[in-house]
Amino acid sequence: MRWIFLFLLPFFLYGETIPVVVIGSGPAGLSSALITARDRVPTTVFCGSKPGGPLNAVTCCGNWPGSVPGKGNEVLSRLFAQVKKLHVNLIEEEVVAVDFSRRPFRLITAAGKEYFAESVIIATGARQRPFTLPGEEDYWGRGIQPYLYKTDGAAIAGKKVVIVGSGLDASKKGAIAAKTAKEVTVVVRGSSMQRPFMDARLAKARVLYESELIALQGDGEKLTGVFVKTPRGIEAIEADLLIPAIGLTPNTELFQGQIPMDAQGLIFVGGRSQKTLVPGVFAAGTAVDGVYRQAAISAGDGMKAGYDALEFLRSTK
After folding, report:
1. Dihedrals phi, psi of 228, to nearest 5 degrees
2. pLDDT per position as a tens digit, 73-111
3. Of 16, 23, 101, 204, which has the most beta carbons under 10 Å away?
């Protein structure tokens, strides 16, 4: 009988209000749920319409601790399996409105359902700015890859890579790709990279200045090439991979006016914690971090947010 009492105790304590709601199901969101659920605190994760988020499209995740390089969706599969074992409630709905003006916090989903939460962890991540080209959505994860890290060298060996961008991200990706890829082309809108040292980094790559990506080419299953408008005319370039480096946009529009954030849409958190300026609301991952943008770092932030939420719940009981 004791185990039945322990199982039902949280429901007597919290009633219909959910103790911890996590918005987002990437590494940050699932890791935060892992921490709170291990403490036997009922936890609900709103996964959205695309559970796992952008990590699903990563073809080689080589910096996940304790794991050999593999696909991003393999990392996510293991995370989902962990939280399911802890009986985390996973809801494949999108939260479209929130009210953080008082507790319990109110959330409304796209299906029109209403939920109330004692605490909320925001882990909505960020999205790659799109090229806004016809047919682009067909090739995300099938030729268009949003990320490229130093550990991805083996995965792109012998491939033809096109990178679009002019900032630090573009120069880093270009330098990484040039080490193992068969061909590397960097498409830059301006007459130079944003900082002089970046041009030197791309010495082994072919750089097209004052150029613009205007169209994609593929067979419906995978990307095969791109068309670029250059000062000399339109050029067709064969490509196995197209890597954008034109910036990320935090998925935080939902929280505008509800929670303080900076001009880029990154949510403010205090000190070394994941506490936002609204007591009981926490944030983690690329909704907060505009610098590192790594799955493992997002997972660590998510764990911190989970512990912060547990501390908050204990302090309010």
Report:
1. -125, 130
2. 888 999 999 999 999 999 999 999 999 999 999 999 999
3. 23
